[in-house]
């Protein structure tokens, strides 16, 4: 996906045009990191709000619309978008999905082994349960990753570098989940560490939204199908889960994401990803991010 040519307007070709052939004050605002971040977050957030809980395939259509909004904002900002390139997207989704699936299954198995969870088959319609989970989680994964990694992390990285960007977006990601049922200060911190840091590290490593979308999608979908609350929201899954013992082990009513197990695992995986990102030049200072 290309960028809009910076020379399509000649200098002084009309009212409101800057001497450099730009689009005046509005164009300068949109082309600033905070400008395109805020414009994109408003657009993608509006699409998400209108489609996230819609019937049938509406969340998937919302995901498509969110990508279109993202492309339009980046085009106005005159920024290339290699992070959403279609080439190799399927491979990145599958790779990220495999990591997300393994992460949740191992976490759930460890909690079960320590006596925290027990599962029983729910007996509901298999196809309808799986379809609902897949549709809803595609919409959630795409819109959230465009907002937090595509827009916020990249804009803040350009302003202050990768390290500051991952810290700020991780904290915002944790705060954004404080309104969920059963949320607490601990669950917000847990989400910031295991999800905010892990997903941010995944983006810095691969520099690909589809990789992070795959990880996020597999994470949420696996939880939902297992019947484990997803960020406090009790799902209709293939199983029902009975929770026993310490909230620190099980996550309580908030779900697996407030358990110490995925926090420790998530931080460990994130450190490995950040190491790989550093070796490949994916960790940028403010100066290098501006290039």
Structure write-up:
- The chain has 291 residues and is mainly alpha-helical.
- 65% of the residues lie in helices and 3% in strands.
- It has a two-stranded antiparallel ribbon.
- Helix 3 packs parallel to helix 5 (126-160) and helix 4 packs antiparallel against helix 10.
- The radius of gyration is 20 Å and the shape is globular.
- The two termini are 19 Å apart.
Record the strand order, biggest sheet: 1-2
* Bulk shape: globular
Give the CA-CA distance, first to last residue.
19 Å
Estimated helix fraction: 55-70%
The SSE string, one letter per element, is HHHHEHHHHEHHH
Mean pLDDT: 90
Percent strand equals under 5%
Question: Can you give me a brief rundown of this structure?
Answer:
By secondary structure, the chain is mainly alpha-helical. The protein has one domain. The protein has helices spanning 24-30, 33-51, 58-76, 89-113, 126-160, 162-176, 185-206, 209-226, 247-250, 260-279, 286-289; strands at residues 117-121, 239-243.
């Amino acid at each position: 996906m290309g960028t809009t040519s910076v020379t399509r307007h000649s200098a002084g070709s009309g009212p409101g045009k800057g001497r450099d052939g730009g689009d005046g004050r509005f164009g300068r605002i949109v082309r600033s990191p905070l400008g395109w971040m805020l414009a994109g977050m408003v657009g993608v957030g509006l699409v998400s709000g209108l489609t996230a809980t819609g019937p049938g395939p509406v969340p998937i259509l919302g995901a498509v619309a969110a990508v279109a909004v993202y492309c339009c904002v980046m085009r106005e900002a005159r920024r290339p978008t290699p992070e959403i390139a279609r080439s190799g997207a399927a491979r990145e989704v599958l790779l990220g999905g495999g990591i997300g699936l393994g992460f949740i299954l191992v976490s759930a198995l460890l909690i079960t082994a320590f006596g925290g969870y027990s599962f029983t088959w729910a007996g509901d319609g298999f196809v309808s349960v799986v379809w609902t989970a897949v549709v809803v989680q595609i919409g959630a994964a795409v819109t959230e990753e465009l907002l937090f990694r595509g827009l916020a992390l990249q804009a803040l990285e350009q302003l202050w570098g990768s390290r500051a960007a991952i810290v700020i977006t991780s904290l915002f990601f944790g705060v954004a989940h404080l309104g969920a049922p059963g949320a607490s200060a601990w669950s917000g911190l847990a989400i910031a560490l295991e999800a905010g840091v892990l997903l941010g590290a995944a983006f810095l490593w691969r520099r690909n939204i589809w990789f992070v979308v795959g990880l996020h999608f597999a994470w949420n979908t696996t939880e939902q199908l297992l019947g484990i609350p997803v960020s406090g929201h009790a799902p209709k899954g293939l199983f029902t889960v009975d929770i026993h013992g310490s909230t620190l082990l099980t996550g309580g009513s908030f779900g697996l994401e407030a358990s110490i197990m995925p926090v420790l695992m998530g931080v460990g995986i994130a450190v490995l990803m950040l190491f790989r990102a550093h070796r490949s030049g994916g960790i940028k200072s403010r100066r290098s991010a501006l290039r």
